[in-house]
Amino acid sequence: SYELTQPPSVSVSPGQxxxxxxxxxxxxxxxxxxxxxxxxxxxxxxxxxxxERPSGIPERFSGSSSGTTVTLTISGVQAEDEADYYCQxxxxxxxxxxxxxxxxxxxxx
Amino acid sequence: EVQLVESGGGLVQPGGSLRLSCAASGFxxxxxxxxxxxxxxxxxxxxxxxxxxxxxEKYYVDSVKGRFTISRDNAKNSLYxxxxxxxxxxxxxxYCARDPFEYSSSYFDYWGQGTLxxxxx
Lengths: 109, 121
Known about the structure:
Chain A is an all-beta fold. Chain A has strands spanning 9-12, 18-23, 33-37, 44-47, 61-66, 69-74, 83-90, 98-100, 104-108.
């Protein structure tokens, strides 16, 4: 079955740049999406179609894609950005099945 | 304002059944695919199922195929998940999510707050 691979954890100091990667064989053919989830809350979409930012999401959140890896970048990290981040994409076999990465815990030191 | 409110969760014995509901408001429900996504305690997100605007297409994760059924009632702006033959590994918070389904791919731009399903004897 298709998998997306994320690092379990990333740590940065306030004001620095955090980069969270997500790897998957189908990513060159399928868009990637990113969600932020804080404890006890529902996920929130922060990036769609690899690099688009929904309205209301701060500009410090950005996304990029290169080959089989997509990256969520948070510039000027703030304490409130501490959360779990999940990438998501689709199986490229045409089955419309959705796949999530395992999630990355972002810790703001 | 888009709102998705899940209900129907609770404690059920292994082998039992439960029906989840999701009441949608603040958007034209019949214009969107909809999905169920679950999260086991302390674990990551797992997509469960999705359904096309008119209910004519439905897709499931392999682990629930044949046990769960997704459905919708556009007249009532409601999404459902009928869960049968429940197992301990189905224990999770179940989220209802709006799915713009663009470029032949699902993604989720609005989520409900979730309803907890616990499968235990």
